[in-house]
Structure of ABC transporter ATP-binding protein:
Amino acid sequence: MTTHAQGLSNPANSQPGDALITAHDLTLRYGSKTALERASFSIPKGRVVGLLGHNGAGKTSLMKALVGLLPADGSLSVLGLSPRHQRNALLEQLCYIPDVAVLPRWAKVSELMTLMGGLQPRFSAARARELLKRTSVSESDKVKNLSKGMVTQVHLALVAAIDARLMILDEPTLGLDVISRKSFYEMLIEEWCDGERSVLISTHQVEEVESLLSDVMMLDEGRLVLNISLEDMDKRFVALSHDPATAEAIANAHPLLRYRQQGGRSAAIFDGAPPAEIAALGERIRPSLVDLFMALTRNPALHAKRA
Ligand SMILES: Nc1ncnc2c1ncn2[C@@H]1O[C@H](COP(=O)(O)OP(=O)(O)OP(=O)(O)O)[C@@H](O)[C@H]1O
């Protein structure tokens, strides 16, 4: 891992004894293109981890490696198994919705349940029926007659009816409206998460998922630049809201990011508490996940928008 990544990763977040995923120096390549560079992290049980990064940051590649679809350098263990060499055993024990997931359009929901029962030993049709009751979809509906949001709900109901310890979701709410996204996340948290199971979820809806997450991993151009619990994030990163008159002094203290809050007031984020004389120039506020994301990932377009 690069110096930058090491500086921002959080060893206190790792609990190897409870870990469902352990990666050390994980590197992923497509020919000469490096999609992920020497990432080390672990995901313990009972966590809801957001995987954030701009387009091309490496999120899908990492998820593919976790389910054995992409060869990896370094070491990787998922549910105690090697994804590449014990893929079949692994797939019996985890749920995965890839970003390109589709359900067969010709099928009825009841037929999908029969299919799942045949393919996945840990699938419970009774559980899927329970979960479907949360949606407006019935078993006799055909996939081709459902809206995009309904299809996604069916997909989640089918996958969440698998008795697994780990769920990996690659941008599961892409293309859904805000109500559909909300009901998707409600079903996920209320019906699947039980304090023992963990979810790794990639998304661009940073603001929306903040309240769901226990932890966040941020990728920037293939580097893991932050891996931290939301609790520790609040303790570690300090944002100061300040008057324009103090902007120069604040800038000289080298914050991670200077930005404008809603309402136009200036603010700056520091990694750790700034010196007392700098802290005295502003009012401490809580940095949002979006603000931190902008501070730690380099997307010129986004930075320009916030300036
Ligand atoms: N099949 C492939 N062949 C070559 N390069 C690839 C391939 N798939 C991905 N890449 C490259 O690997 C890098 C990471 O891509 P990846 O799809 O993992 O990013 P991502 O964070 O999921 O992006 P997005 O948010 O746009 O889905 C990118 O530079 C991409 O161009």
Notes: The two ends are 30 Å apart (CA to CA). Residues 1-15, 300-307 have pLDDT under 50 and may be disordered.
